[in-house]
Design brief:
- The structure holds 2 protein chains of 2 kinds.
- In chain A, helix 2 runs parallel beside helix 3.
- Chain A is an alpha/beta fold.
- Chain A starts with a strand and ends with a helix.
- Chain A is built from 5 helices and 5 strands; from the N terminus they run βαβαβαβαβα.
- Chain B is of the alpha+beta class.
- In chain B, 72% of the residues lie in helices and 8% in strands.
- Chain B has 13 helices and 7 strands.
- In chain B, the strands form 2 sheets. In chain B, strands 2-4-5-7-6 form a 5-stranded mixed beta sheet, covered by helices on one side.
- In chain B, strand 4 and strand 5 form a beta hairpin.
- In chain B, helix 6 packs parallel to helix 7 and helix 10 runs antiparallel to helix 13.
- The two termini of chain B are 53 Å apart.
- Classes of the chains: A alpha/beta, B alpha+beta.
- The interface between A and B is medium-sized, with 22 and 29 residues.
Chain lengths: 124, 535
């Protein structure tokens, strides 16, 4: 039994549902947050093994949240996959500059997302 | 030469009344040529005057010399008179001793010479002298009568009587005459001295007058030169200073000159030019200002457009993510085994969803290009990898349609630098279209190196494009005709986007086609694309 925890920060209910159902058959445990502030609070309270971070979030943007988590010693080492629905060039670079471990553009294939998660945090 | 610099002496003189004269000459309504001619004539006239005066002086001096000579002559005559008188007295005395006719005759001859000399002196003698001369003549006549008596007495042998006559009559007479002659000598000497003094004074005066006149001529020439040259230098200096201002970008100033000649006309023309320049400058500044504000508005509009694009992208992709995500998870049987009759419609949803996503991406790409927000992501890439990606993506479509899909990649291709994702996208568009519009035969995707350029080639054995359509084929929303649209679904954006990406890379795209025999699309991309490319 794995106790690897994944924190999904995403404001859209349907997209949260995809991840929820995608991970349902796996051993990963899922936590959710609906905005950048809540996501940061959750990550600081109990650092997860991986964070899925949407870029366009209410209150604090995903990029800003990523930057702040990276500068916080409690969460600095947590891998973050930044997910963007912007298609403007330079987004990936911005995500990397903010400290993202990986970058994924919407619409993503759930299969690919799962593969990427497994690549970064293998199931026990 | 530094025109703006006036030497201190000239500056001082220009502030003196001479400056007023300079301005006066400048102010004269006459041409520069006339003014110059006038100045030269004035100086020439002055020197002519001086020449005339010199000639006059020389003539006067010559007259003085003549007069002095004459005075000398008269002094000489008066001495001769004295001498002649002494000779008569001497000869008379001698006649008493030697008692011969020759001596008597000599007395007469001496008397004649005396009278001649007296007559010469009398000419041009002043009245006072004439009276003396008259007395001398009367005395001489009387003396000659006495001499005649003495001569007769001597001839008669009455020497005593003659001696007595000589002592009592002649001697006193001669003495009187001698006194008178002495007066004449004195007067003539005085006259000569007076004459000499007068000549010397006259010469001194002439010399002074000549010097004064010469000095005046030189002063006049200098003044004339100064006035006439500064009447022209002043406007030139002002024009120069004015033009320096203009050259430094200060328009609208005026140049003021007192001249009413060609320089005045020039200054007036310069002022007109200045006004015109100032007007143009103001217009240009206004235009620049309005351009600036327009530019600002355009920038704002561009930013708004970019923000809109970002939002649209987000808003469209978020639901697409859910649609495609759930579909994939159902097809992947994440929710359990799927009834076989559901698989086909679900696959249809997925295919159409992906197609919709491509359309969305195309529209967004084109909008970004139009907004000038499309930027290439440049990096090293392998040409072979790009071609392989395209082949792998389209292999199934080619197989499905029963077409040969061939790639021809040269062995000599180096590592390239550019936006490999966009180049892949271009090839996918072209090869995708080729497969779409070809019913049988083959589609060939080739790339070869031409110096510093790569030439990609997508050839098909499809329906071909008529010459009249070739022109428009790269424009947005264009397909060959309406009927093709029905048979082969597409937006018509692919070629337009491909063209723009190729051009962003600094390349060129074109097509060679023959109806019924197929088309070949070519595009070139520099092997190394610099980072300055931007839409």
């Amino acid at each position: 039994m794995s106790d690897k925890t994944i924190l999904n920060v995403e404001d859209n209910e349907f997209n949260r549902k995809i991840v929820r159902q995608l991970l349902a058959k796996t051993t990963y445990r899922l936590r959710e947050a609906v905005d950048g502030e809540a996501g940061m609070a959750s990550a600081r309270e109990s650092p997860p093994d991986l964070i899925l971070m949407d870029i366009q979030l209410p209150k604090i943007s995903g990029l800003e949240a990523t930057r702040q988590l990276r500068s916080d010693p409690r969460t600095a080492a947590v891998p973050i996959i930044v997910i963007t629905s912007f298609a403007l060039s330079g987004d990936e670079q911005k995500a990397r500059d903010a400290g993202a471990t990986a970058y994924l553009a919407k619409p993503y294939s759930p299969r690919e997302l799962l593969a990427k998660i497994r690549e970064i945090v293998p199931e026990a | 030469m530094r025109l703006e610099h006036t030497d201190p002496l000239a500056a001082f003189l220009l502030r003196s009344p001479l400056g007023a004269l300079v301005r006066g000459v400048a102010h004269l309504r006459a041409s520069v040529r006339s003014k110059l001619l006038g100045a030269f004539l004035l100086v020439t006239l002055m020197f002519l005057l001086m020449g005339a005066f010199s000639v006059q002086t020389i003539r006067r001096m010559s007259q003085h010399t003549d007069a002095l000579d004459a005075a000398h002559q008269r002094v000489a005559w008066s001495y001769q008179l004295q001498h002649s008188l002494a000779m008569q007295m001497h000869l008379t005395g001698m006649a008493l001793l030697v008692r011969d006719e020759a001596t008597l005759a000599n007395i007469l001859r001496e008397n004649n010479r005396f009278n001649d000399t007296l007559a010469r002196i009398e000419q041009a003698a002043p009245d006072a002298e004439r009276q003396i001369i008259q007395k001398i003549r009367t005395g001489q006549e009387e003396a000659m009568t006495v001499v005649a008596d003495i001569a007769n007495l001597v001839r008669d042998g009455r020497v005593d009587a003659a001696l007595s006559l000589q002592l009592t009559r002649e001697d006193p007479l001669y003495k009187t005459i001698d006194e008178q002659v002495g007066l004449i000598v004195e007067k003539e000497n005085e006259r000569m001295v007076a004459q000499r003094a007068s000549v010397e004074a006259a010469n001194r005066r002439s010399l002074l007058a000549m010097g004064t006149l010469g000095l005046a001529s030189i002063l006049l020439a200098l003044t004339g030169g100064f006035v006439i040259s500064w009447a022209f230098i002043v406007p030139v200096q002002r024009a120069h200073a004015f033009l320096s201002d203009v050259a430094a970008g200060h328009f609208g100033g005026t140049v003021r000159v007192p001249n009413r000649d060609e320089f005045g006309a020039l200054a007036a023309r310069l002022n007109e030019t200045s006004r015109e320049l100032a007007r143009l400058d103001a217009e240009q500044k206004q235009a620049a200002e309005s351009l600036r504000s327009l530019n600002l508005k355009l920038e704002q509009a561009s930013r708004a457009k970019s923000a809109f694009l970002a939002n649209m992208s987000h808003e469209l992709r978020t639901p697409m993510n859910a649609i495609l995500g759930f579909t994939e998870m159902i097809l992947d049987e994440l929710y359990g085994e799927m009834p076989p009759d559901i698989k086909e419609p679900l696959t249809d949803i997925q295919v159409n969803g992906k197609h919709l996503l491509r359309l969305i991406n195309d529209v967004l790409d084109l909008s970004k290009i139009e907004a000038g927000r499309m930027e290439l992501v440049l990096s090293e890439y392998s040409i072979r990898d790009v071609v392989e990606t395209v082949r792998a993506s389209l292999r199934s479509l080619a197989t499905e349609k029963g077409l040969d899909f061939v790639t021809e990649v040269g062995d000599d291709l180096p590592e390239a630098h550019g936006d490999s994702k966009r180049i892949t996208q271009c090839l996918l568009n072209l090869a995708g279209n080729a497969l779409k519009f070809t019913r049988r035969g083959r589609v060939t995707l080739g790339v070869e190196r031409q110096a510093d350029t790569l030439r990609y080639r997508v050839a098909d054995t499809g329906m071909g494009i008529s010459p009249e359509h070739v022109e428009a084929i790269f424009a947005e929303f264009q397909q060959v005709d309406a009927t093709t649209t029905r048979e082969f679904v597409g937006t018509g954006l692919g070629l337009s986007i491909t063209k723009k990406f190729v051009e962003l890379h600094g390349g060129r795209i074109w097509v060679e086609s023959e109806l019924g025999r197929g088309s070949t699309f070519y595009f070139t991309i520099p092997i190394h694309v610099g980072s300055e490319s931007k839409a």
